[in-house]
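hey can u check if this looks right to u? its 176 residues, i copy pasted from the old doc so theres a chance i mangled smth
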Amino acid sequence: MEEMVKEKVEEKKTKSEKKTTTKRRNYKKELEKALEENKILKEQMIRLAAEFDNYKKRIERERASQVDTIKAELIKELLPVIDDLERSVEIGKEKKDFDSLLEGISLVYKNFMKTLQAQGLKPLESVGKKFDPEKHDALMQVEVKGQKPDMVVDEHIKGYKFKDRIIRHAKVIVSK
């Protein structure tokens, strides 16, 4: 009987050891599987990080190229103004005629402003308008008879707007 008990105890031990060994093998397989998945995910993450870095660099190059293209287009549109200025200088040297030179410079100015306005530049109209701190910088206030207070009476430096954004405030004199 003792032997039977020993056999049963041994049998139970063996079954328990087998279960433990099986559990260990299962855990080991799961760990190996998780480690392999981790390795694959790390590789994917490294690839994605490299692809994103390359994407950022490509976008920066494209943006710089676009800026250069825009600058080149603007300069190309301003070349006729340079041509007109060069002609004006040559005529001024030859004729020494102030009226002709003034007329030439006026034409160059008109062409120049036309080119800039085609790009979206607009001068701000200030004189006779109510002072607006969003558009004007007041240089001084003066007493003007018959003029309402806070009205722009003189413009020292013209202000400009590019599309819908003020790029330079007008420097003005305002009535008290």
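Residues 2-95 form the longest helix (94 residues).
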